[in-house]
Amino acid sequence: MTGRWVIHLPVTAPDLLQARILARAAARVLARLTARVEPGGVTVSAEDQQGVRHWVFCDRPLPDGGVRCALPVDHTSACARRPPGLRRR
Hints:
This protein is α+β, with helices and mostly antiparallel strands. Helix content is 20%, strand content 12%.
């Protein structure tokens, strides 16, 4: 056992797009509270097909040393550390 526990928090949304939006918002809020949140690992699934997961964040490695892309999985712009307009505290 790794000594780590994963929290599974079922939250419902009417469709895949809304599920991804809600998951991104929740991950960003939780990431501000603790460094233990791994937004890149966030996925969503249909309630009756929980084995079929859809990624929420791009999470590709960026060339500047281990930082990963924080944009939505289906973004068309260049990868970035944080979404445009999201300020760092």
